[in-house]
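Project outcomes to date are best conveyed with an example. Our students and postdoctoral researchers have been running inverse folding experiments weekly, and each run begins with a structure described purely in tokens. The record below, which covers 404 residues, was selected by the lab manager from last quarter's runs and is presented without edits.
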């Protein structure tokens, strides 16, 4: 398929409609592109098509910036930690076992970038697309209105070892108290794996809670997630699908539960990898077909903070949901000026261990290496076929009750 035709298809699927009086003038002095609705203000940057600010009022009417990031867009590409901060990981999100996969009997090797060993000094697997995955690259702004912005990227054939060219549009829109995003990608020349997500780091207190600087008080509810993907001690799927037994560490489906409620259980040891206590797990989203993912009763995740009262309901057409509890943070990632407490020695202006949550809507992780799961039609795309599409809505409200 010719590139121009591919762009036309993607444009029809993803571009917002801009009225003549709603266009904006580009980024502000910090390189941020802002969009606004009645209840939300959000800012994005070209680096990784990343969300950098999300401002919403808490139960007291105080505006909170509830996603981690940096004050200036230029720093995202400089920071050596690069925790995939708010970006779009691609062209294949999460982990690829042994940095290899097969398509139609042909084997491909992609850039390894995680868990280096003596035998594999660059890494034993690939995470979020390799050393130069999509959230390390600058996207192009192709449309920007008062309430919507669309980014695009052309990923060349062979980049990070992936076969074929991929053209993608990422559209973010705000309306009322809802942040919508739609990610569309098209394989233009060869069959290739595609799986995207949003990698925002959430703290519904805006890192300003004067009782705790962690999110262990946040309550999580995953009503459709009675199962998860089994992984080994470096978080590579084993092929097993595990039950989240009622009352177990990974049970967030039977009732809402605080993030920290089960972390002292013996079962929590190693839950997020070798010697790790926390969450870095892929829950499956099992709904009866057919379902309308936008329906009021079909949120796949609910996150709530009793301190701020802010509640986040996540709706998505995806069939898996990764939660990372920020146990890798160690107080070296700084807060933005819009966040945190000032002049309080008990609460430094940094993100501590368990100080945030990453909530990733996506498909079954490493599905390209597990044909027995039957995920090929949702993860392998080729020229002339349907595009990859991910849709999600993040709905914010105030909940002042003790239980979510």
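After processing, the design step wrote out the following sequence:
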């Amino acid at each position: 398929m010719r590139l121009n035709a591919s762009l036309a298809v993607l444009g029809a699927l993803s571009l917002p409609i801009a009225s003549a009086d709603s266009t904006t003038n580009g980024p502000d002095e910090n390189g941020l592109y802002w969009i606004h609705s009645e209840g939300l203000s959000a800012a994005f940057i070209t680096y990784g098509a990343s969300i950098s600010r999300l401002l919403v009022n808490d139960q007291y009417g105080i505006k909170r910036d509830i996603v981690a990031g940096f004050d200036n867009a230029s720093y995202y590409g400089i920071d050596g930690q690069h925790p995939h901060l708010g970006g779009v990981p691609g062209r294949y999100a999460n982990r690829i076992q042994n940095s290899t996969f097969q398509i139609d009997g042909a084997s491909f090797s992609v850039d390894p970038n995680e868990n280096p060993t003596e035998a594999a000094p660059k890494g034993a697997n690939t995470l979020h697309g390799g050393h130069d995955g999509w959230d390390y690259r600058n996207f192009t702004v192709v449309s920007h209105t008062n309430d919507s912005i669309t980014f695009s990227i052309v990923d060349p054939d062979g980049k990070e070892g992936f076969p074929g060219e991929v053209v993608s549009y990422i559209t973010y829109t705000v309306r009322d108290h809802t942040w919508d995003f739609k990610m569309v990608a098209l394989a233009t020349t060869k069959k290739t794996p595609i799986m995207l997500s949003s990698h925002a780091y959430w703290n519904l207190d805006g890192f300003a809670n004067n009782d705790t600087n962690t999110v262990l008080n946040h309550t999580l509810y995953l009503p459709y997630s009675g199962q998860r993907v089994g992984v080994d001690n470096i978080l590579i799927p084993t092929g097993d699908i595990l039950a989240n037994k009622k009352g177990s560490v990974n049970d967030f489906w039977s009732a809402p539960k605080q993030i920290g409620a089960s972390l002292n259980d013996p079962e929590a040891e190693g839950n997020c990898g070798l010697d790790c206590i926390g969450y870095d797990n892929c829950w499956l989203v099992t709904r009866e077909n057919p379902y309308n993912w936008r329906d009021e009763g079909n949120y796949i995740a609910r996150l709530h903070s009793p301190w701020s009262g802010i509640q986040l309901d996540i709706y998505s057409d995806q069939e898996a949901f990764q939660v990372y509890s920020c146990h890798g943070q160690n107080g070296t990632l700084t807060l933005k000026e819009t966040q945190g407490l000032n002049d309080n020695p008990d609460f430094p202006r940094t993100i501590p261990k368990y100080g945030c949550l990453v909530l990733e809507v996506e498909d079954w992780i490493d599905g390209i290496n597990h044909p027995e799961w039957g995920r090929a039609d949702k993860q392998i795309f080729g020229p002339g076929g349907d595009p990859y599409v991910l849709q999600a809505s993040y709905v914010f409200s105030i909940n002042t009750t003790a239980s979510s």
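The CA atoms of residues 96 and 366 lie 5 Å apart. The mean pLDDT is 94. The training component of this project remains on track.
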